[in-house]
Design a protein that fits this description.
Blueprint: H1 3-12, H2 14-21, E1 33-36, E2 44-47, E3 50-51, H3 53-64, E4 69-75, E5 80-85, H4 86-102, E6 110-114, H5 119-131, E7 134-137, H6 144-154, E8 158-162, E9 164-167, E10 170-173, H7 175-184, E11 191-195, E12 209-211, H8 212-218, E13 229-230, E14 236-239, E15 249-252, H9 255-267, E16 276-279, H10 286-298, E17 302-307, H11 317-325, E18 327-332, H12 334-341, H13 346-349, E19 358-362, H14 368-378, E20 382-385, E21 396-397, E22 414-415, E23 420-424, E24 438-443, E25 453-454, H15 458-465, E26 474-483, E27 489-494, E28 498-501, E29 504-507, H16 508-516, E30 521-531, E31 535-544, H17 553-571, E32 579-582, H18 596-603, H19 618-626
Parallel strand pairs: 4-17, 6-7, 6-8, 8-11, 11-12, 16-17, 16-18, 18-19, 19-20, 31-32
Antiparallel strand pairs: 1-2, 3-13, 4-5, 9-10, 14-15, 15-25, 21-22, 23-24, 24-26, 26-27, 28-29, 30-31
Helix pairs in contact: 1-2, 3-4, 3-5, 3-10, 4-5, 6-7, 9-10, 12-14, 16-17
The structure holds adenosine-5'-triphosphate (ATP) and magnesium ion.
Length: about 625
């Protein structure tokens, strides 16, 4: 079948389409209705059906391939490596589930998971799924205040954590931050379950904190049967990355999510049972939920959980893992590839990468230079995919298992089945024509796997996502984009990253693209800065491919003028940044997203805001330095 026909089926008859896809998972009780849209924009999938995420990820594979690898936990920080077979994973998950039950966790209760990338984090997620508890994983990089906000929103009865994580050879304490967060929060969890890795000395709070190893020893053989859940019960809450404003608790279901992941593993990621999948993300992000823990396991694949950086002990580490475990599908982010690009490619060539079939990248725009570089070095297709915490799986990509759709540089691909993607004119609400810029929107109902609502706030779900265009059931992604004549989309930045220069609305991304085309520029961030005359002006911060090329003020000035000339030529003088500053690095979140709002705040003399997920605080100091603000 052609992909176009496959896609059309999914849009014209979603019930029939998803009924077919639902066979990819095991159901305890069949559903009565595939799709209920009686209360738009809310959509219910597989109504009345009963299933379980843990059952589909673990138990059903214990029956057919108990000894195949399921979870491969690798830490280049502690130099440990352990392979859990499906049978072993099944046991560990039951032990964790038994501990949770012994601590009073019940179906529907929230369990907050604040953990480094260790196997126990996956056990905890799967254990929650098994007993019908709702997990809320909070990224380990978040500090006390952000954690406290999430504790107050999710109101967990239990927090699962560890003494510490490790990064770049140094212990990163978790427990003290958690203690502070619980102190700060109004809601107090009844218990804290601590995995003590012996990395950081800590004390347990009597009556509240319990030790995982001690409890595990008591539950080595306690069987914990699967709790069958109605398809629309809650599986988890995950807060969006927080690149912009206040984090939203994305709430997900059980059945729809399981089906969506199984389908994406088959059609988009082309994974087969018995193979190994390696996603380099973190369980704190949506990629970690969908494509480290649930997706690969639901597909019967072994999944790699990696604690460490891409360049320790050297930049060949990921490729040595690909060789050792015969990884067939790998998933990473452009930012990680840019990091690797700074290291000698010989480190990659040292390893046998013949098992690898494709590399998937997501999370931020994939620039052409990075994409071409890694494609040449690896010799496998590089597949961009565009999606959000809210959707749980790709909105745009190519579904290679259906048809060998070619990729196009600079485009994350075409609309994935189930998503009625439209480019909407933000003023009129009408659909844009080919190559006309508008907001990337999805006509409801959203396909299975997407968020059900904002946790505890249906109103916020409706008003945030569905009320941006008059009278339409349109979900806004808050990203700008265009669609070309052939159905390929191009993402042009976030709608909240728009700069308004003297009445002209410009996307920061477009200006960045233009500046990046200058051969000297490595990376660039453009922000809108308040200006008395024009309302806003664009200001650019760039890193150089060869920092030595512009060290003197004269050289910098000359380069700045060249960059401005490029923008003038490509976009017009109105888009020309008022200043182009050269810095050693740009501020990013640990998930690799540019912190434009913090740069903007600094430029406008405001506080840089919540910086708990920043990769390297020195980057902000550099910005302050060049714009002449006191550090
Ligand atoms: P918040 O919503 O809290 O501000 P966030 O949007 O950064 O945080 P995520 O859900 O992790 O949180 O990121 C989704 C966003 O990342 C998309 O809306 C888009 O802006 C960007 N993005 C993801 N994948 C791609 C891609 N392949 N190409 C371009 N942009 C992408
Ligand atoms: Mg977002």
């Amino acid at each position: 079948m052609s992909y176009a026909a496959f896609y059309q089926q999914s849009i014209q008859n979603p019930s029939a389409f998803w009924d077919e896809q639902a066979r990819l998972i095991d159901w305890h009780k069949p559903y009565q209705q595939v799709l209920d849209t009686s209360q738009p924009p809310f959509a219910k999938w597989f109504v009345g059906g009963e299933t379980n995420l843990c059952y589909n990820a673990v138990d059903r594979w214990v029956a057919t391939q108990p000894d195949k690898a399921a979870l491969i936990a690798i830490s280049t920080e502690t130099n440990t490596e352990k392979v859990y077979s499906f049978a072993e994973l099944h046991q560990e998950v039951q032990r964790m589930a038994a501990i949770m039950l012994s601590l009073g966790v019940q179906r529907g209760d929230r369990v907050l998971i604040y953990m480094p990338m260790i196997a126990e984090a996956a056990f905890a997620m799967l254990a929650c799924a098994r007993i019908g508890a709702v997990h809320s994983v909070v990224f380990g990089g978040f500090a006390s205040k952000s954690l406290a906000t999430r504790i107050d929103d999710a109101k967990p009865v239990l927090v699962v954590s560890a003494d510490a994580g490790m990064r770049g050879g140094k212990a990163v304490p978790y427990k003290p931050l958690l203690n502070d967060a619980i102190e700060l929060a109004e809601h107090k969890p009844a218990h804290v379950l601590i995995v003590n890795r012996g990395l950081d000395a800590m004390t347990l709070v009597a009556g509240r904190d319990v030790d995982y190893a001690a409890l595990r020893a008591q539950h080595m053989q306690t069987p914990v049967p699967v709790t069958w859940l109605e398809s629309n019960e809650m599986s988890y809450v995950l807060y969006t990355s927080g690149t912009t404003g206040k984090p939203k608790g994305v709430q997900r279901d059980v059945g729809g999510y399981a089906v969506a992941l199984a389908a994406s593993m088959k059609h988009i990621y082309c994974g087969n049972a018995g193979e190994t999948y390696f996603a380099t993300s973190d369980i704190g992000w949506v990629v970690g939920h969908s494509y480290i823990v649930y997706g690969p396991l639901i597909a019967g694949m072994a999944t790699i959980m990696y604690e460490g950086t891409p360049i320790r002990p050297d930049a060949g580490i990921w490729w040595s893992i690909v060789e050792k475990y015969k990884v067939t599908r790998m998933f990473s982010a452009p930012t990680a590839i840019r990091v690797l690009k700074k290291h000698p490619p010989e480190l990659m060539k040292k390893y046998d990468l013949s098992s690898l079939k494709a590399l998937y990248l997501a999370g931020e725009p994939l620039d052409e230079t990075t994409s071409s570089w890694i494609a040449t070095e690896l010799g496998v297709p590089i597949i961009d995919n565009y999606w959000q915490t809210e959707t749980g799986w790709p909105i745009l990509s190519v579904a290679r298992a259906i048809e060998n759709t070619p990729t196009r540089l600079g485009s994350p691909g075409v609309a994935m089945y189930g998503y009625n993607v439209q480019i909407i004119n933000e003023m009129t609400g009408a659909e844009c024509g080919p190559n006309e810029k508008g907001v990337v929107a999805i006509r409801g109902p959203l396909p299975p796997g997407c968020m059900q609502t904002v946790y505890g706030d249906d109103q916020r779900f409706v008003s945030t996502y569905w009320a941006n265009f008059a009278h339409e059931q349109l979900y806004s992604t808050f990203d700008w984009g265009i669609k070309d004549e052939d159905g390929y989309y191009f993402i042009l930045g976030r709608t909240d990253d728009v700069i308004n220069v003297a009445g002209h609305r410009l996307g920061t991304r477009e200006i960045e693209e233009s500046i990046s085309s200058h051969p000297q520029i490595s990376e660039v961030a453009v922000v809108g800065v308040e200006d008395k005359l024009k309302g806003q002006v664009a200001v650019a911060f760039a890193t150089l491919k060869h920092p030595d090329a512009a060290t003197t003020p004269e050289q910098k000035q000359a380069l700045e003028a060249e960059v401005m000339a490029v923008v003038d030529k490509q976009l017009g003088a109105v888009a020309r940044p008022s200043r182009v500053y050269f810095v050693g690095m740009l501020p990013k979140t640990r998930s690799g997203k540019l912190l434009r709002r913090s740069i903007q705040a600094i430029c406008e003399g405001r506080d840089a805001g919540d910086l708990t997920t920043i990769e390297d605080p020195h980057s902000l100091a550099q910005i302050k330095d060049v714009v002449g603000q006191k550090v």
